[in-house]
Sequence to fold (229 residues):
Amino acid sequence: MYCILYRIYTLRNTIGMIILLWTICFLLEMPNFDFINWNNHSFDKKSMTCLWDRTYAHSYSIFFITVGVVFPIILIAFCYLKIFLHVRQAKRRIMAAKKGQEAVESASAEREKRNSMRLARTLFVIFVVFASCWLPYGAVILYDKDDKLPLEVHVFVLIIAHFNSSCNSILYGVMNKHFRQSYVQLLGIHHLAYHMCKVRMYSYKHEERDAQSTVMTNNKISQKTFIKS
Fold:
C-alpha cells in the first residue's frame, strides 16, 4: 500500500495537485472580479465573514454551491462506491481462491479481507461526515436568497461546514491504526508507542489464530458435506 502511495504522491504530482487546487479556487473566484461583474465581495453580517454577496446574484450562489459542495459530494460518493465494489470483488476472489489454498494462506487472506472491509467502513464514515457538515451550509445559502434567516442559523452552518476539516484527523485516528501509530510517533510518546506495538502484536497473533480456526472449521464442514454427498 505504501509503495502505491509513494508512486502517487511524488514531489511532481504533489506540486501538480497543489497548483490544480489553487487554479480551481481562482476560477471559482473569477466571477467576483470587476471585469466580469457576475457577483462581488461584501461583509456578510449573518456569517460575519467577508465573502461573495449572497444577496447580489442568487444565480452565482447556485453556481458556487453546485460546484463547491454538491459536485464534490457526488464525486466522492462515486469514488467511494468504486472502492467498495472493488473490495467486494476482491472478497469474492479470495473466497473462491480459498478452496485451493492451505490453512495458513487462507488465514492471511481472511486477515486481508477484514482489513479491506475496515478501509471501506472508514471511507464511508468520512463521506457521511463530509456530506453532513457541508449540505446544511449549502441548503441554507440556497434557501435564504432574501436573507431572512437569523444570524444564528448562518453562523451555525458555517461552523459545522468548517468543522469538517478539523474532525477528519480525529476520524482517521480513531478508525485507522496506522494513523494512530503516526500520531504517537509525531507526539514523541515512545513508551505509549511501545505499549501499542505489543498490543498490536498480541492482537495480530489472535487474529491469525482465529482466522486459521475459521478456515479449518470451514474445511471440515466442506469435507463432511462432500462425504455425505
Observations:
- The beta strands are 41-44, 49-52.
